[in-house]
Amino acid sequence: MNDYSEYTVSIHYDRRLYRQDIAGSIVHARMLARQGIIAEEDADLIIEGLGKISTEIEAGEFPWDSSLEDLHMNIETRLRQLIGPAAGRLHTGRSRNDQVALDMRLYTKEIIEKTIEGLHGVQQALVSLADRYRDVVMPGYTHLQRAQPVLFAHHMLAYFQMFQRDIERFRDCHSRTDVLPLGSGALAGVAYPTDREYLARELGFSQTSANSMDAVSDRDFLVEYLSATSICMMHLSRLSEEIVVWSSREFEFIRLSDEFTTGSSIMPQKRNPDFAELARGKTGRVYGHLMGLLTVLKGLPLTYNRDLQEDKEGFFDSSDTLLATLHVFHGMLNGLTLNAERVTRVSGESFVLATDMADYLVRKGVPFREAHGAMQELCGYCESTGKELLDLRLEELQRFSPRFADDVYRITPASSAAARDNPGGTAPNRVAHELEQAKKLLQEGSDGL
Ligand code: ARG
Fold this sequence. Notes:
Layout: H1 11-14, H2 18-34, H3 40-58, H4 71-83, H5 96-132, E1 137-142, E2 145-151, H6 152-177, E3 179-180, H7 196-203, E4 207-208, H8 212-217, H9 220-246, E5 254-255, H10 274-297, H11 312-334, E6 337-338, H12 340-346, H13 354-363, H14 368-385, H15 394-398, H16 413-419, H17 428-445
Helix pairs in contact: 2-3, 2-5, 2-7, 3-4, 5-6, 5-11, 5-17, 6-9, 6-17, 9-10, 9-11, 10-11, 13-14
The chain binds arginine.
């Protein structure tokens, strides 16, 4: 091999597609024989040879040769060594263009199935957390400032919803990936009476492509996969950020299990949330691969162009990263403990109940704006005196509104959450319903795509 040809080699990464490539070839050979395009005996020889190749690859004994450039040429060359000239008939009515498109679609469909399984695992862990701490009230945040009390379960189930949308996106992407490109030839179709319906059925596709030129050059399904992957990593990264913040000494809301923290080489007290940080960091490369592929595709005239070979590495890296991250999150969330005592305590501090006190005044007949103004002044007063709202005596409260009465002291974080009793709100009965719905979705989801 001269120094230049190395530039075009893809075997070091496209060999990952060997199972799909061999499965496609076996079905293609069988179809050729059924249609009388090649002899039965040749098809039998080809299929037997491909079986041997598969065994060799799995045993790590396949003689990979980078001077043969890609996976397809490696397999075809080996087939000739094993069965002789009959090997030359396999590529009848096929091109590497529809072959590689087939391999990528088969591979992507499998990856999507695994991704959805991984997402279900994370959802399961969120549901267990919500269940385990179902009555715990914590401060909910806006602007990372304590805002209003919410149930910890409500917070966990917010992520459940994000991952549910991710699952829907992956399913949607699966439906457009599920289209057979084989039979498109190099670009124009093939000059043999092939049976594409048979190919689709045997290879598990629900549709065959409608346009051969589109079929060999379309990589939208990968863009969609990378886009759904980016959105999913964005969600995981947001959750990572919460885990990092919550496990800090400043918050002390959660404790990660030892498996998911690392010590510092010089600071013995450290329990660094490295897994969450890495997930947040790896999101960057996944976004990058999406942008990379969009850029590869944007200037391509129809039909196949060699640029398309650049669809693979970023895609493999993104799917590896997402699957690994989902696996880590499953473990990390299952091993997470909530400092329930602390989150409940702080949800009664720092004016988290200010909105509820304003609502209280509204219920006593004060217009909302006025109640809000009174509470603003009250909060200012508390800040300057270093007191909490409900530590004030009734006479002090009444200086800001005469409508305050003894029953104001019944406002607690729990009563605040219970008051948000409308669909989608954080009242315990609403969250209990949400949890049931989540469990039902998980149950349905485990029945398949
Ligand atoms: N390695 C190529 C790819 O991944 C396979 C298809 C090559 N086709 C061709 N006409 N050179 O896209």
